[in-house]
Design goal:
This protein has 13 helices and eight strands. By secondary structure, it is an alpha/beta fold. It is flat, with a radius of gyration of 24 Å.
Amino acid sequence: EAPQADAILAVDAELLAAEAAVVIAAAQAAEQAERDSWFDRLSDRLSQTRQGLVSRVHRLTYGRTRIDEEMLEELEEILLSSDVGPKTTDEVLTFLRGKAKDARFLPAEVVPALRTYLSDRLADGITPITAERGKLTIFLMVGVNGVGKTTTTGKIAAKFRLNDYKVLLAAADTFRAAAVDQLEVWANRAGVELIRHAEGGDAAAVVFDAIQAAKARGVEALIVDTAGRLHTKHNLMEELRKIRRIIEREAPDAIVESLLVLDATTGQNGLRQAEVFGQATPLTGVILTKLDGTAKGGVIFGIKESLGLPIRLLGVGEGLEDLREFDPSLFVDALFATTENAA
C-alpha cells in the first residue's frame, strides 16, 4: 500500500506543479501584455519630444562619414533646445568626443550610443513609490499651482486603494477651494476619507488632524496635498516648513516622502522650482506630469542630472492609467521608438 500511496502523491505533486506553471505563465503573459500596452501609449505620448530630439539627431547623422566639431555643435543645439540642460548636454558631448577618438565609431552609431548613455544615466537610484504594510508612510506632495499636483495626489491615493492599502487624504491646500473640492472628488472616487478644513484655514492644522486620524485608524498611506503659491514664496516656504515640523513632532516614526510635482512643459523652469521647494523640505523624488504635451521632454534628463533626484512617476494624460512608475529603460526605448525612417 505504501508504494501505491507514494505514487498517488507523486501524481498529485506533478498536477499541482503543472497547474502552478499554467498560473505563472498566464500571469507573466498578462504582465507582458500590460507592459506592451503602456509602451505603445508612452511611445505615442512622447511623439513631440521624439520629433524635437531623436528624429533631429537621426537627420543630423544621416549620410555623414565622420564625427567632427561642426556636427557636435549642431548636436549641442538640438540637446539644449529639447531642454536636456547644459550639464547633461556637456556630459553627452564629452562622452561622444571620447567615442569619436576611435576611428571605427561612425556617425551612424551616435543614436544607439546616445540611447544607451541616456538610459544608463536615468537608471541610478530608481525606487518605486510604496507604503509599508502596517506602518504609516506620509507623502507630502509639493509643487507650484497648475502642475497637476492635486490630480496626481488623487491618482496616487486611488492606486494605493486599489492595492488594498489603508489610505487617507489631507487637503492642505486651504487657499484654493477648487483644490479641496477636486481632491474630495478623487477621495469619493477612490473610496478613501479626506481630512479638510474651511477655506483659508491653517494648512498645518489640517496636517495635524490628518496625522491624528491616520494613527487612530491604522492608515498606511497618508497623502498630503499642499499649496503652491510661488508668487508668495516666503509664506509658502514657511508653511511647508511648519508642516514638516508637525510631521516630525506628531509622527516621528513615520516614513516621509516629499515628492515634487513638475510640469514637463515648463522645461528648465522646473529645475528652479525644485531648488525653491528643496529649501523648505528635503525632496525624495520628482513626479513629472504633462509629458504628452511638450516637445521638451528632454528635461527629464536635466532633472536627473542637475537635481540628483530620482524620477518616481510619469504622467502622460488625464486617466488613472496614465500615471505610472518611471521605468528608465522603457522610457528611453519608447522615446527612441519608430525612428528608423526619420532620416
